[in-house]
Specification:
mainly alpha, 79% helix, disordered C terminus
Length: 419
């Protein structure tokens, strides 16, 4: 059914949005948590970070489990952990209990992110994968921004425990919807793979792709966190600084799916990463230099958006279906590691060199992205050529009347474009 994969993508979008909705719950109720549970700002920060921190440890084991269990089973388990986390957080009476609940939710969210990305790859591989990944990527900020007004209203009516319960209910609704999704037929028939590591020729490109994805996201986090600080230091009001940064965020959110569509139409994700990264880095450098800061912010938002779908599509170029679960486990481990260590390192640079150091580091990360992407292109070519040669042999054997056994349970032969 030609529209089935888009319906499934809509469900995966909702599932990923639920993780963003639950992440925002602590921020929406921060003042109430500080008052009722006697927390300080550092503890609120720990609760926020605890939702992302498990990804460093959990992503790879979750990928290994993905080779043993169906994607649906693993995804349902992740959503169940998120629901349990929300209920436990709503019933917590001290910081320690809240932290444990938050860590449980972070484990579930990591599993959900991995499963959603892998299933999107399975359904859209060699078709509209850049566009599909772009749509999936915008789901997290969509869920977080949707939570802002809804959770603020809930907090005013019923207090902070109800806000936490709303995250559990959102996860429960996503769980019910996810229970009805299906997997591609070749994924249902796959056999268990008795290995927990990628082939050497595939591991390095996946590590590089995960590093590119982490670097891009870290650059965005640094911009959205430190741009207002720099603008205030340069003489702007805090309101103007926050408004301009918020506008840049909206430009980014709009540019993710629209830019993904343009990258899909061009068929050149590596070229898109190179061009968009360099333009975004230049815009960030101009912003630091106070050269038309408003225009620089907008340009940054527009050109950083298309990077998400283009980068997320890279692993599909080298990962056979049987390796995708553990492959995306490796990919997300790199991402979460950079997201855990990067802000701390940027804050250290900010303390040493002043108010623009973190933004300069963000620009440097964006400059590194094209270099790493070109390295991925070079490193992945031998594997892709081998796959194409095998597909050619299969077609020749079929024309000769033979019935060859495929190397992997992959989709029909794909054509890859280098740039």
């Amino acid at each position: 059914m030609p529209d089935q994969r888009w319906t499934i993508l809509a469900v995966l979008f909702a599932v990923r949005a639920a993780t963003g909705f639950q992440f925002q719950s602590v921020g929406s109720a921060a003042s109430m948590l500080m008052q009722d549970l006697a927390m300080d700002y550092s503890q609120i920060g720990m609760l926020l970070g605890a939702y992302l921190l498990p990804g460093v440890i959990v992503a790879f084991p979750a990928g290994v489990l993905g080779q043993r269990f169906r994607d649906k089973t693993l995804g349902l388990a992740g959503l169940l952990l998120m629901a349990v986390s929300g209920v436990m957080l709503g019933a917590s009476g001290d910081f320690t209990t809240a932290l444990v609940a938050r860590l449980i939710g972070g484990v579930g969210a990591t599993i959900v992110a991995l499963v959603a990305t892998k299933m999107t790859t399975d359904w859209f591989d060699s078709r509209e994968i850049v566009l599909a990944m772009s749509i999936l990527q915008v789901s997290w900020p969509f869920g977080a921004m949707l939570a802002l007004p809804i959770q603020a209203y809930i907090a005013q009516l019923w207090g902070w425990p109800a806000v936490m319960i709303s995250g559990a209910l959102c996860a429960g609704a996503a769980l019910c919807a996810f229970a009805f999704v299906s997997e591609p037929s070749e994924q249902k028939q796959r056999t268990v793979v008795d290995r927990s590591m990628l082939p050497g020729g595939v591991l390095v490109p996946v590590l590089v792709a995960g590093t590119v994805f982490g670097a891009m996201n870290l650059a965005c986090v640094l911009f959205f966190s430190y741009a207002p600080v720099l603008m205030v230091a340069q003489g702007s009001s805090s309101t103007a600084a926050a408004s301009l940064t918020s506008l840049a965020i909206w430009f980014t959110i709009l540019a993710i799916p629209s830019g993904g569509y343009l990258v899909h139409r061009s068929g050149r994700p590596i070229a898109a990463i190179v061009v968009c990264s360099l333009i975004a880095a230049s815009a960030l450098a101009l912003f630091v230099a106070e050269v038309h800061p408003t225009i620089s912010c907008m340009v940054f938002g527009v050109f950083v958006g298309p990077l998400s779908g283009a980068i997320l599509s890279l692993p599909s170029k080298v990962l056979a279906p049987r390796d995708r679960a553990v492959g995306f486990g490796v990919f997300y481990t790199c991402f979460y590691a950079l997201m855990a260590v990067g802000p701390l390192a940027a804050g250290y640079l900010q303390d040493i060199w002043g108010s623009s150091a973190a933004l300069i580091a963000g620009a440097a990360l964006l400059v590194a992205a094209p270099l790493l992407s070109l390295a991925f292109e070079f490193l992945s070519k031998p594997y892709r050529h081998a796959e194409l040669n095998h597909d050619a042999e299969l077609r020749a054997a079929v024309r000769a009347g033979a019935r060859p056994v495929p190397l992997t349970p992959s989709a029909p032969a794909r054509s890859h474009r280098a740039l």
